[in-house]
Amino acid sequence: MNDVILVVVQPRRGQILDSAMTAIGAGLDLKRDTAARLVIGVVGFDATTVAAGLKTNGADDLVAVDLQDPGFDPEAHDAATRLLVADTGAGLVIFGHGVDAMGVAPAVAARQGWGLVTDVTGIQVVGGTVRVIRPSYGEQLLEELECPRDTLVLTVRAGAFTSRPGSGTPAQVRSLKAPTTSGRVHHVKWIDPDTDSVDITKAQLLVSVGRPIGGADNVARVDKLATAMGGMLAASRPVVDAGWAEPSRQVGQTGRTVKPKVYLALGISGAIQHIAGMSGSELVIAVNTDRSAPITSYAGYVVDIDLHELVTALESEVGL
Ligand SMILES: Cc1cc2nc3c(=O)[nH]c(=O)nc-3n(C[C@H](O)[C@H](O)[C@H](O)COP(=O)(O)OP(=O)(O)OC[C@H]3O[C@@H](n4cnc5c(N)ncnc54)[C@H](O)[C@@H]3O)c2cc1C
Questions:
Q1: pLDDT above 90 covers what percent of the chain?
Q2: CB within 6 Å of ligand 1 — which residues?
Q3: Given CA atoms 264, 266, 269, 274 in this order, what sign does their dihedral have?
Q4: pLDDT for 170
Q5: Computed from CA positions of residues 119, 194, 279, 158, in that sequence, does the dihedral angle turn out positive or negative?
Q6: Is the pTM here over 0.90, yes or no?
């Protein structure tokens, strides 16, 4: 058995994404459970510089492959990742799930003749195999798959594993020369998202509203309240579909995955597609007039009260 785990980090515009830090977290968990060697491979434009700033407690090797293209060239990423596999002898390759990983992980698995599981939310080591959990069928079901752990490519969901930013001094970087590729894809430019879109994934407190909030004015009230409480507004999909909140506020399968310390859910039923985005919250407080709503099984506290009454009470509590 090949007991080397390779976590592939794909920086974007010189930044290491949260999904990559999650992948490193998953790699560290597996290293602890298997005593395997953990190699972090940084692939991309100016990868050596990015790798030199990476503090990776617990990784055994840090290797960079510098690519020419500042954008994302899937062919170059595929060739560089397979070079890393050959160089390190890795049998298990982990990416942070995202568009760049999905542009390369299937190619790597196919060319190596290995298995591929995407959007993984749980990994458990069982002898020479790993049991992998992934949501499927629009998050209606969770699949458990048993895979060999020495010929496998995984993409892991951001927020589903503990991301552990390293501390101390960065590890020494080994640089490998990028393989030559055909260069058929050329990066033209980056197009930035709207500047007014918010990032709810960083909030420690989310006050999240569901359909019974009833309208844009009430959502605006809760937005103010959430800010006064030191948190941010989030929402379920019907609230966004109705145009009462911006899409960047949506939590769930087709929204953002969040992991706040406190998730205060005001009138949210807890459909599986919503749970997919917030089940990693440290504490869920479900405010719901139906004590048997699905969200109550994920909640530390269930508050059986009309959400509008609670909003009014909290407003006066914080002086609004
Ligand atoms: C492919 C697909 C993807 C999806 N992606 C997402 C996603 O990313 N995010 C998402 O959120 N949904 C998503 N959905 C929709 C999801 O299935 C649910 O329909 C949705 O989450 C329900 O939203 P809700 O809980 O706000 O509303 P409802 O289902 O209407 O639930 C309202 C809840 O509030 C309670 N309630 C009612 N009145 C009050 C009151 N006055 N005070 C307190 N409690 C009250 C009710 O008991 C109920 O539990 C998706 C669906 C599909 C098919």
A1: 78
A2: 138, 210-212, 236-238, 250-255, 267-269, 271, 273-274, 277, 287-290, 293, 306-307
A3: negative
A4: 67
A5: positive
A6: no
